[in-house]
Amino acid sequence: SRLRADGPGVSIDATASLRPDAASTVDARVLKVEGVYDGALQLTADDRGRSVSAHGRYFDARTMVHDLSAPGGGGGAGGGQAPAVRLDLALDQVRVSDRATLHNLRATGVWADPIHRRLDVSANTPAGSAASLHLTPDAGGGLISGRITNVADAADSFVGVGGFAGGTATVQGRLRPEGADLVVEMRNVRL
């Protein structure tokens, strides 16, 4: 099936193949919803799980970030086992809060139950400082490591905290169902 639509604030050019007994695919070469998303999006569901491939200019992720940060919102806990979701994201701008926008976000991996969860994410602040995060499987939930190339820029860009200059940070730890145990080490941060 093919779907094409153009209207105020919306533009879609997509194909879909939905089959209950085989792989199903939605391929939107153009998906533009003003203020929410602008790019291409491909969704696939098969016997190995689901996959999301998003390559675009803009995504407003505030609602998703809010839902994931709510108690029990991280997935992998509770009732039934959710299918694995394979991710391939390349987005020029991602709004994560009213104040913060990530640039050049790249994310690849699998979001699944904690024992199989693997994710690599990198992004820049509006001023160009780089941040990266790596999540690897672990029997207790997941191992996390990350790096921020400019603590002062990241603090100002994401939480509005000023008064710092420069500095780098590393994050190491473990994600557990009840929360995260993290060690954050900052170097050469000046007040």
**Based on DSSP secondary structure assignment, what is the total number of beta strands?**
12
Low-confidence stretches: 75-79
Class from secondary-structure proportions: mainly beta
Largest sheet: 12 strands, mixed
> How many DSSP helices?
2
- The gyration radius over C-alpha positions equals 19 Å
Average of the residue pLDDT scores: 88
Strand order of the largest sheet: 1-2-3-4-5-6-7-8-9-10-11-12
Assign an overall shape: flat
Strand content: over 45%
What distance lies between the first and last C-alpha atoms, to the nearest angstrom? 59 Å
Estimated helix fraction: under 10%
The run of helices and strands is EEEEEHEEEEEHEE
Characterization of this structure:
The protein is mainly beta. The chain is about 10% helix and about 55% strand. It has two helices and twelve strands. The chain has helices spanning about 60-70, 150-160; strands at about 1-5, 10-15, 25-35, 35-45, 50-60, 85-95, 100-110, 120-125, 130-135, 140-150, 170-175, 180-185. A twelve-stranded mixed sheet has the order 1-2-3-4-5-6-7-8-9-10-11-12, covered by helices on one side. Strand 5 (about 50-60), helix 1 and strand 6 (about 85-95) form a beta-alpha-beta unit. The longest helix is centred in the C-terminal third of the chain and has 9 residues, at about 150-160. The model is unreliable at about 75-80 (pLDDT under 50).
